[in-house]
Specification:
The protein has about 80 residues and is mainly α. The chain has one domain (about 10-80). Helices cover about 70% and strands about 0% of the residues. The chain is built from 6 helices and no strands. It has helices spanning about 10-20, 25-35, 40, 45-55, 60-65, 70-80. The longest helix has 15 residues, at about 10-20.
Length: about 80
């Protein structure tokens, strides 16, 4: 995964949340993401969403820009509240 200066505990928490929504184990999701495999994430997305996702993850600068947007930060906060 690209180093986006995210606290490892926060990343683990996010992986747990996302993996539960995708129906895969956190370790499997993390391994897939680290190896550039997004099959588990893409199979449950609409084709248009999957295309946008692929565009973002293939460009490290775009990914970092996306992760620092207020919307991404708000989504992360919403997903991790009370966890």
């Amino acid at each position: 995964m690209a180093n986006l200066n995210v606290d490892p505990r926060q990343m683990d928490q996010l992986l747990k949340i996302v993996s539960s929504k995708l129906g895969v184990s956190p370790d499997s999701l993390k391994n897939d993401l680290e190896n550039g495999k997004f099959d588990s994430a893409l199979k449950n997305m609409k084709p248009s969403e999957a295309a946008k996702f692929n565009q973002v993850v293939k460009d490290p600068k775009l990914l970092e820009k996306f992760m620092t947007t207020p919307q991404a930060q708000a989504l992360y906060k919403k997903l991790t509240e009370g966890k």
